[in-house]
Amino acid sequence: MKKQFTSYQKLADLLNRKWSITLLLACMWGIQANGATKPRNSVAGTTPNNRSVSVKPAVFAGEKVTSFTLIDADTEKDIQTIANGAVLKLSSLPTKNLNIRANTSPATVGSVVFNLSGAQVQNQTQTEKPYALFGDASGDYYPWVPTNGSYTLKCTPYSGGGGSGSAGAALTVSFKVETGTTNPRPYVTAVRPANGATNVALDQSVSVDLRYPGGNYIRTTTVNTSTVKLYSVSSSGAKTLVTGTAVNSTAAGDAVTLSASLKLATTYEFQITDGVKDDNGNSLIPFSSRFKTTSVTQPPGNLDGVSFTEKTLITTSFGSDGFTTLVIGPDHRLYAATSGGKIERWDINSDGTITNHKTISPFGSSRRLLIGFHFAPSATASNLIAFISHSSPLFTGTPEWSGKISRINLNNPASPQVVDYVINLPRSYKDHSTNSIDFGSDGALYFTQGSATAMGSLDGAWGNRPEKILNGAVLRLDINKAQSQGLPVNVKTQEGGTYNPYSSNAPLTIYATGVRNAYDLVWHSNGSLYVPTNGSAAGGNTPALPSGTVWSNGSKYTGASIPAMTDVRQTMSDYLFRVVKGGYYGHPNILRHEYILNGGNPTSGSDPGEVTAYKVGTPKEPNYRGYIYNFGLNKSPNGIIEYRSNAFGGKLRGKMLVCRFSGGDDLMVLAPSASNPNSITVTEGIKVPGLRRPFSNPLDVIEDVKTGNLYLSEYYDANGDGQPRITLLKADKPATSGAVADRLITDTFVEQNKEATGLSVSVYPNPSTGDNLHAEVKNFGFQEAVTLTLHNAVGQVIQTTNLVTDEQGAGSQDITLHQQVLRGVYILKAASASGNTQTKVVIE
């Protein structure tokens, strides 16, 4: 751990260098005016537990970079000076976890700007000492594991912070790195299902983990159906190519997944050819494995009578950019955001097909990766106001502060009006970006911000870019506060930015942390925020937690020091989180004092979310909230909605649909319990006719609540910009009356009142907009007649309906309100021979 540099130490440094009395007095004035400098690598001098903001003292022009020092990032010790033409042999160094420090004259300058090119690229601005190419935090250097090759490093000092002011004398050196690798070709380290596995489920995808001796990640353009194949194998050994497969790699290029329509009791051979290459052009060592499927037919799900009929509406011939988000507007038109920044719009015909296409160009001819798209709660068919999230269109080497939240007026599609509300959101080196958005019942805009790393620390696959304080989190934007403070709100937190998300008047705040890369989120009618999240593939790095470090709860961690881990060979599960304010969900970020990946490894038994690479006894973070459902490995759950219409007699209503982009390639049905929003019942897409082809990388889905039809975006080519495809999944038993659009609520899922021996009645959505209600009763008698009566506040009967319970004494019934219902509080009463009970209903 290295000392903090105070203003008085800087003054002593000036005295030792015999600066003139004029400069000395100026420096003393700077100390008195500005006070202590901010802690190194903090955000504008803030942490979650120390939220004061301080300013760096004045510095002076004439600086120069004198040398570069190679650092051992494990011990924080100097290894050697890097001279021009140096050859760094990793086999002779004490560690492969390195960093490079720039040394300056004077020892403290305004800032330095690094530019590393060659085998790896890194651009970094450092305002505080030590000036580390790959950054540091509270005295710990971030680790950099270099690859074979030649490098050129240039570092320029500046008189001002964040690369501002006058440039001093730069230093440039060239050097080589030799890793000693004898075979640079990538290879498979694990396959799922395992080689030789039997009784494999018919919706099981094949996934592999990879290692890269001579590179950092898979070149995703080489992962396709020509290089990744599946064959059926007959009893005689004859192989037949399986067609219609869906193939993709992860964003980090560290895993490959194939999905197919499998048959009962069949042997399959999975193959990856040497046509798959890493980022340095090394061909993968060919791999193959075999498995046999189950001979037992999949049991039916609990959604008997629910089925959809598929129809392709838009094919890949439409264009070159994939559809990132689908929305049905208050004008009952289908909108599709694209990876190139366009918004495509169609009218919806009565049969669910689409027509009358228009292209909307929010950014003119410029390209942007447009993901989040949500109409404002106040939007109407004649006032089409929406909010969008967008960032750099690049998928590798992206600009670091390119994320934005904007308001868009779509009343005139030929001339959309865009107003930026938030600028300078962080962006990862690859595709973890500012993702989808949703409005809460408080009128605030919630969105997910992807992480910058695989597992919390720098790694080559993610461009050795460190986490920023807003990365890997669910963020909340107070729109009114942003407007009152002046637009746009600049939320750059480092490298010259001073935004403090912990300030009491901050328009953009951190709602929950540790959410690694959640593509989408949904506020459910039960009042819960559900967030499906992508876990990391194997190969990431985690930060250390030294004993005595301030932890995420503000107290000092007093246990044994927990070392950093590199190249963790455990693929992390994809989870569904029920996110609550202030919760931590497993992705480390040392700027927020969050160090432990997922659930740590606290006991020798099986722990929820455990990371087995940790030593037994590794605790979880104090505020770790865990998950409510484990999707498994390499599933990539992305787009999510709550199904809201009464199609299929209401069997899907209130249930969530999640797109499994990689493994599964389907729409999975997730049903929250009426009494416990943390309890989820799951039905895989293969068990619901029409919800699994398998689809080709399903990314997002939207429901037409007037009919119950679904519109699905298949990203088709899962790499980068993707390819466009929209599929209509037409409800075979459509909605009988139009259901209301998404409605956000404040209350919990139900309010139950048990007036008689455990009897209960619940209602959702609650509050309601006054169209349809869905009521459920429990604990009544076997096949007992129950009367449901809705009363207003003065006891007048508004609506009455009846149901008969099942053999468990439970039942449900949709209540259609045929007359106009005013806003207010109502009472729904359930009465039978067994007794009666009631619950409050709020009509908004």
Automatic annotation (TrEMBL):
Residues in Secretion system C-terminal sorting domain copies: 763-843
InterPro entries, A to Z: 6-blade_b-propeller_TolB-like, Quinoprot_gluc/sorb_DH_b-prop, SbsA_Ig, Secre_tail
Transmembrane segments annotated in the record for this chain: none
Domain SbsA Ig-like, chain residue ranges per copy: 185-293
Keyword field: Signal
One Pfam family of this chain: Big_5
Gene3D superfamilies linked: TolB, C-terminal domain (2.120.10.30)
Signal as UniProt keyword: yes
NCBIfam families, A to Z: Por_Secre_tail
Protein name from the UniProt record: Secretion system C-terminal sorting domain-containing protein
Organism annotation: Adhaeribacter arboris
Source organism phylogeny: Bacteria, Pseudomonadati, Bacteroidota, Cytophagia, Cytophagales
